[in-house]
User: Fold this.
Amino acid sequence: MRSLNAKRLQQILEKHADENIARHTMGGAAMLVSQHGVCVCSVYRGYKNVATRDPLTPNTMFRLASMTKPVTGVACLIGLQKGWFTLDDKVSDFLPEYGSMYVGMLDGSGQPVRCHKAQKDILIQHLLTHSSGIIAEDAFGNIQNDLIPSLALASIADVVHYCAKHTYLSFEPGEKTAYSGYVAFDILARIIEIMSGQTYSAFVQENIFQPLGIKDITFVPNHEQWSRMSMMCDKAVGGFVTIDMGPHTFEKFPLSYSCAGASLAGTIEDYRVFAEMLLQNGSYNGRCIVEPELFKLMKTPFVADNIPGRSVTESWGLGVRVTLCDSILPAGTFGWSGAYGTHFWVDQENDITAVYMKNTRWHDSHGRGETGLQFERDVIMALQ
Assistant:
């Protein structure tokens, strides 16, 4: 195990953040890096709002987008721990309407049409590992996503019911992998709602955030939290413009819809606490969220290398990517990113958590993004 050179890391992260702000790559960013449970580097550069020049501070709230998915992964581990389901259970055992899904295709005019009845059942693990085919991020799934009416986005229950009745799978469950932006995780959240008798937001609050002492990660920000929300930033000629997303934590999803794959907002410090719990195999500050033996499942690569669509360098764990032969991070590192530029990872080889947050309307590359990759390189280069 190597140690981080905290002084060198602080200097290089600040330097690169300032350069990216000057180049209009981002309006502001926050970074926290911890080793052995101690924060060794904290960076807050640029602006919460580039129009008003309000500075970005430790209590700035960010729209987390797909960094919501690891939280749902932990929620499912809690469901496993409670005996509500297993990874091999059929989704239709809990939501019967998902027992009659069809695989679809695009017709000659580019419209989704029904092809044939699915020969395989969607399993719980398919939803967690982007292997279900439900509103996958491929040509077929993206078109279906665009056709989901706004009325179907009123709640998790509404989204899940609509997709069972009005959408088709991109492929047979388990036979491919393609990223599922949110619906697969909403199905998981709906099962948790049914089994717990609670709303999904109440479940994660009671079983994850409250035990960890997290107060600033939420599906529904209060008035004071909205006042701290980072304004979405977009590119413009010679600089930036701000985008007012209104009272939405993800796109135009209403706050009544606690999207389990995309709708959390929170501070970097509270997400660091969540990441530290992951590093410590399901526990933090004496509070056990998930039993250690069960927690191992989260960081297990589930998607085999012979499955079409899987990267040669990484696989999917439960709601997280797991590195296999990454060019930067050690094998077994796990974490994920968000559409607005958020990114984190847990490096158990070097006992590190690293969290990076910005909110930009564009993303500079698939997955981690170029500034996220730069953050990774900077942290690894500071090891000695």
